[in-house]
TrEMBL record:
Name listed for the protein in its UniProt record: proline dehydrogenase
Lineage: Bacteria, Bacillati, Bacillota, Bacilli, Bacillales
Enzyme Commission number(s) of this protein: 1.5.5.2
InterPro entries in UniProt: FAD-linked_oxidoreductase-like (IPR029041), PRODH_bac_arc (IPR008219), Proline_DH_dom (IPR002872), Proline_oxidase (IPR015659)
Cofactors: FAD
Organism from which the protein derives: Virgibacillus sediminis
UniProt keywords, alphabetically: FAD, Flavoprotein, Nucleotide-binding, Oxidoreductase, Proline metabolism
Length: 305
């Protein structure tokens, strides 16, 4: 049953009709647990609350798979406005962006141009931008874009997904760039010829790439809600004398807030991924696909309404 739900929500995340309806009717059916509002003012309030509790944040203006350069330009402007707000309010927060929201399905050069506009503003504010990783079809071109940007900017990072077979080689390749990486298990529904098909293999790959990246001396954003993984990372870094300044834990807004606070209280850098905006549907569906307990929460929330 959980596999059926996972496939259903993963398919819905890419459904354009459902996405348009979601934009029209707003943050309904429990989405507000995972999405910090539909405008930057809402997002700022949530980030400030996290900062006040000793946690950093990364803001994501939601959007993906745009169909015109005008839409990509608008997404770029909203990313820049997000950086403006972070700077204006003195937030401990950086920016994360999806390449498809900046035109990747239209043209690679359009995306590069838009990313450079964003990175120029971030550099002016002494801030950092992470280029997200999306589904497998965008993996290679996203890494190519990252490498091109890294030649010009030192305030840019990207993401690698442990469930892909190729990731072990990508970790070694990106070591040449001293890459700041957000390391995740992966949230897209990929076929078994591309990605590890079961959780145990994904977990094993995930621990391996974290350890390799840290031993290479590079900065790691360990993006996991799994207490077992977190305990292993803490143990490993202590045993190998890896400074707390070389890594941070990262979690999604609305998931395991008590664990987030505990890590921050124990002196670890804790950064919370805070998405906002009207284009929330794809992101929300992937959160439901990832964790069956999220579906239970949404059903209870809907019944209450």
């Amino acid at each position: 049953m959980s596999k059926v739900l996972t496939n259903t929500f993963s398919s819905l995340s890419r459904n354009q009709i459902a996405n348009k309806l979601a934009k029209k009717y707003g943050l309904k059916f429990g989405a507000s647990r995972f999405v910090a509002g539909d405008n930057i003012s809402d997002a700022v309030k949530h980030v400030r609350a996290l900062n006040n509790n000793g946690m950093a944040a990364m803001l994501n203006y939601l959007g993906e798979f745009v169909t015109s350069e005008e839409e990509a330009d608008l997404a770029t402007e909203n990313c820049i406005r997000t950086l403006d707000a972070i700077n204006k309010y003195g937030l401990d927060c950086n920016l994360t962006v999806k390449p498809t929201s900046l035109g990747l399905d239209l043209d690679k050069e359009v995306t590069l141009t838009n990313l450079k506009k964003i990175l120029d503003v971030a550099k002016e504010y002494d801030n950092f931008v992470r280029v997200e990783m999306e589904d497998y079809s965008h993996c290679q071109v996203t890494l190519e874009i990252f490498k091109e940007l890294k030649a010009e900017y030192d305030n840019v990072g990207t993401v690698l997904q442990a469930y892909l077979y190729r990731t072990e080689k990508d970790i070694d390749d990106l070591n040449r760039y001293n890459a700041n990486l957000r390391l995740v298990k992966g949230a897209y529904n990929e076929p078994p010829n591309i990605a590890f098909p079961n959780k145990a293999e994904v977990d094993e790959s995930y621990e391996a790439i974290i350890k390799t990246h840290l031993l290479n001396g590079n900065y790691a954003g360990v993006a996991s809600h799994d207490p077992k993984i977190i305990r292993e990372v803490i143990k490993f870094t202590k045993e190998n004398n890896i400074s707390k300044g070389q890594f941070e834990f990262q979690m999604l807004y609305g998931i395991r807030p008590e664990l987030q606070r505990k890590l921050a209280e124990n002196g670890y850098k804790m950064r919370v991924y805070v998405p906002y905006g009207i284009d929330w549907f794809g992101y929300f569906m992937r959160r439901l696909a990832e964790r069956p307990e999220n579906v239970s929460f949404v059903l209870k929330n809907t019944i209450k309404k």
